[in-house]
């Protein structure tokens, strides 16, 4: 467990790879060296083939990514995105032309250090250098963008400041680019200050994490549009998505689950977010990274020093990981149940005019309220006056979904992001 009691994805991984004593590989019959599930033991070679086939079959079955398409890989430095980067690199180096992954990839890293308390400029510079080196070792173009750039007055696709480096650049050039990028972020930077003040307005960590998720997604889409990419691959694992399924339901985002956790998220239109790592649990990714000796780096998040019950997402993560220890099928059960959900195609259930939330771009779920829906808004804080129940919660905005309405209400004054976020 990281400092402050944070439960990160790395905490869900075993401290050491489980050995397969007196077991044979389920595929070739040789002595097994690791166990994926209770009864699935593999030798090293068969596990790598299993992992690769699982990744490629996920892309092949959906046919979301077409040959020759420009695909942007979202790299956070964590275990899952490191495995994603390696899978794409290996796929493009496949010896057989028929099996080769034929795409034009790029890598993007979003520096979120601005909103992390105690993460100073020197630490950000060091983290950027490590992440940049790992990303550039892939040989793909690398794009680095700061989270606070979303708050700039001219944060359009044409003006969004992005540092670009290619495999042809020397490591010295990369270091100079990183230092130059970080040094521009002084404490007097208006965009950084505006973003910090915005997050400080939030009453709960849940709202901060919710906003960060939306800002991150919108920046990924902006960078993709700037450089002509039509797909964005993210490293969300099945373990991470299982947590999000439970957390989204608790936060009133159940109607957006097919988009938030599905293989392809097409809410942004011209840029589709793809999750090719969703069929892997964190344990499998840990084994793959260990065998292939892949480097990853831990970066602090909003919940790094937070208590277990600090946010809905943080508490859900601790709950799922705790169950997974004694019940290894917990993650797969939650994930596969959530994967069965899909967007309704019934015209009667579709929102009028197919309207979408102005903030998260998911289909609106705040139509005409029924008796049950109208009692949802903070009834725990209701008071009685002349035998009448008076709700103290805010009325939902007609242009926001239920989940985003709760997030906006938690921030209070949301005008700082109205132009960039609500009308993006």
Automatic annotation (TrEMBL):
One of its GO terms (molecular function) is nucleotidyltransferase activity. GO terms for biological process: protein urmylation; tRNA wobble position uridine thiolation. Transmembrane segments: none annotated. Pathway: tRNA modification; 5-methoxycarbonylmethyl-2-thiouridine-tRNA biosynthesis. InterPro entries: CTU2 (IPR019407), Rossmann-like_a/b/a_fold (IPR014729). It comes from the Eukaryota. Keywords: Cytoplasm, tRNA processing. SUPFAM superfamilies: Adenine nucleotide alpha hydrolases-like. It is found in: Cytoplasm. GO terms for cellular component: cytosol. Its main location: cytoplasm. Residues 371-382 have a biased composition (Polar residues). Coiled coil: none annotated. Plays a central role in 2-thiolation of mcm(5)S(2)U at tRNA wobble positions of tRNA(Lys), tRNA(Glu) and tRNA(Gln). May act by forming a heterodimer with NCS6/CTU1 that ligates sulfur from thiocarboxylated URM1 onto the uridine of tRNAs at wobble position. Belongs to the CTU2/NCS2 family. This is Cytoplasmic tRNA 2-thiolation protein 2. It comes from Branchiostoma lanceolatum. The gene is CTU2.
């Amino acid at each position: 467990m990281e400092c402050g009691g944070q439960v990160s994805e790395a905490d869900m991984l075993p401290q050491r790879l489980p050995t397969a004593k007196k077991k044979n590989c389920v595929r070739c019959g040789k002595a097994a060296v690791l166990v994926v599930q209770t009864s699935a033991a593999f030798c090293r070679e068969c596990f790598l083939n299993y992992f690769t086939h699982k990744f490629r079959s996920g892309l092949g079955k959906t046919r979301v990514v077409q040959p020759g398409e420009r695909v942007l890989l979202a790299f956070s430095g964590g275990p899952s995105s490191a495995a994603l980067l390696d899978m794409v690199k290996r796929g493009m180096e496949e010896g057989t032309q028929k099996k080769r992954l034929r795409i034009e990839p790029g890598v993007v890293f979003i520096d979120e250090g601005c909103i992390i308390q105690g993460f100073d400029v020197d630490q950000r510079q060091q983290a950027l250098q490590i992440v940049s080196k790992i990303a550039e070792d892939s040989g793909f173009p690398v794009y680095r963008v700061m989270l606070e750039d979303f708050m700039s007055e001219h944060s359009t696709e044409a003006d969004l400041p992005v540092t670009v480096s290619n495999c042809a650049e020397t490591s010295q050039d990369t270091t100079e680019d990183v230092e130059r990028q970080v040094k521009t972020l002084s404490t007097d930077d208006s965009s950084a200050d505006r973003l910090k003040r915005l997050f400080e307005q939030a009453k709960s960590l849940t709202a901060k994490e919710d906003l960060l998720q939306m800002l991150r997604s919108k920046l990924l889409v902006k960078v993709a549009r700037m450089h002509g990419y039509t797909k964005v691959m993210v490293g969300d694992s099945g373990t991470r998505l299982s947590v999000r399924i439970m957390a989204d339901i608790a936060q009133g985002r159940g109607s957006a689950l097919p988009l938030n956790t599905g293989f392809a998220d097409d809410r942004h239109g011209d840029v589709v977010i793809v999750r090719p790592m969703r069929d892997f649990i964190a344990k499998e990714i840990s084994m793959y990274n260990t065998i292939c000796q892949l480097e990853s780096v831990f970066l602090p998040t909003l919940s790094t020093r937070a208590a277990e019950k600090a946010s809905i997402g943080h508490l859900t993560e601790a709950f799922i990981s705790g169950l997974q220890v004694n019940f290894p099928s917990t993650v797969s059960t939650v994930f596969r149940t959530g994967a069965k959900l899909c967007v309704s195609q019934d015209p009667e259930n579709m929102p009028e005019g197919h309207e979408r939330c102005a903030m998260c771009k998911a289909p609106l779920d705040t139509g005409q309220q029924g008796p049950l829906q109208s009692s949802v808004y903070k009834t725990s804080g209701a008071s009685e006056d002349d035998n009448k129940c008076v709700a103290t919660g805010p009325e939902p905005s007609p242009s926001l979904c239920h989940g985003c309405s709760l997030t906006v209400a938690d921030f209070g004054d949301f005008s700082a992001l109205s132009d960039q976020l609500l009308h993006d």
